[in-house]
Every structure is written in structure tokens, then in C-alpha cells.
Amino acid sequence: MPRLGTVVGVIVALVVIGLLLRWTFGHQRNLAVPTDDPDDPVATGLLTEVSRAPGAEAAGVLRDRLRAAGIRATVSRSDDGGYAVLVFPRDVGDAKVVLSGSPE
Q1: Is residue 53 within 8 Å of residue 85, measured between CB atoms?
Q2: Which positions ≥6 away from 54 have C-beta within 8 Å?
Q3: What superkingdom does the record give (predicted)?
Q4: Angstrom distance (rounded) from CA 8 to CA 80
């Protein structure tokens, strides 16, 4: 049978570990909630719009053309009802060249 000192020591150790974990991985309620970037009017984060299409299917065709050329692209619905084709900033030049070419 374990001694009383051993049981108390284990309980104290668990409490200390629990408090350290709470302090380390707590909810951080004192931190400010991130707000939208005022320099990004369309709130697309790291992505840049390279084209706009009136419908989802047309935007999907443009996105697929970019992906076939090896450029990562995505589609986002715009506030005006259209669809924006978005790529990373380093791919903007290549994406514009691909999209300006004739359809294959």
C-alpha cells in the first residue's frame, strides 16, 4: 500500500502539471481578435484576383485552365454576384499569360 506522502506528492505534481498546461495552452482571452486587413479590400488574404467571371461554370473553366498549366488557383464568389479567380501573388504574371491565350 502506498504511503500517504507518495499519494499527496503525485496529486501535487498532477495539479502543478495541469496549471502549467493551462497557463501554456490556455484560451488567451486577453488577446485581441484579429480584424480584417484594411489594405485588402476584397479580403482574399494571400491570394490575388487575376480574372472575374459572371458564373460559377465560367470561373471553373478558367481555374481548370490555370491548374492544367501548373498554377494553383481557386474561385471565390464576389459581393457583386460574379466569381473571382484567385492565385498566389508570385503566379499572377504566369496566370495572366495563360488566361490571355486562346482556348485549347
Answers
A1: yes
A2: 82, 83
A3: Bacteria
A4: 65
Instruction: Evaluate whether 51 touches 62 at the Cβ level (below 8 Å).
Output: yes
- Tell me the domains of the chain and their CATH numbers: 48-100 (3.30.70.1530)
pLDDT per position as a tens digit, 10-65: 999 999 999 998 888 777 666 665 555 555 555 566 888 899 999 999 999 999 99
Query: 41: how many CB neighbours lie within 10 A of its CB?
Result: 8
Please say whether the beta carbons of 100 and 85 come within 8 A.
no
Nine cell digits for residue 94: 504566369
> How far is residue 20's CA from residue 40's CA, in Å, rounded to a whole number?
39
Do 13 and 19 touch, CB atoms closer than 8 A? no
Pairing type for strands 73-77 and 83-87 reads antiparallel
Residue for cell digits 481557386?
Answer: 74
